[in-house]
Amino acid sequence: xxxxxxxxxxxxxxxxxxxxxxxxxxxxxxxxxxxxxxxxxxxxxxxxxxxxxxxxxxxxxxxxxxxxxxxxxxxxxxxxxxxxxxxxxxxxxxxxxxxxxxxxxxxxxxxxxxxxxxxxxxxxxxxxxxxxxxxxxxxxxxxxxxxxxxxxxxxxxxxxxxx
Length: 163
Description:
Helix content: over 70%
Number of helices: 8
Low-confidence stretches: 16-21
Distance between the termini: 16 Å
Oligomer: single chain
Number of strands: 2
Number of domains: 2
Shape: globular
Largest sheet: 2 strands, antiparallel
């Protein structure tokens, strides 16, 4: 569920970025000329997904691989079932097991009772995390914390209205 909250937060940030980067131009349009919020959400999601996919491609992993590597990095003792539970909104158990098998064969992770990152896996994690951090900073440029928080509040209200 933490990954969902991060995704919502990231989408909120990106949504605000897209809608505020040319506020004067948008403010001058009549209400009927403005695009619906769904456009901005979809455009933001596409740009974020493309950017993150590019980063993953550069380090030769998939998004599921990253989620597994990140979960292992954040949890000292995590097993396959816990990862499957944690990532159930993003991938089914079979996909997760296939990704774990790939990560094991690439010697990025190790499995005893729990999954852990190898030195090679730790290096890949650090490299990928740094690239993602720079990407997020680019997405967040010129956005105040107050603007970001207001976007999240608004998106949460939309989610609550639709659930």
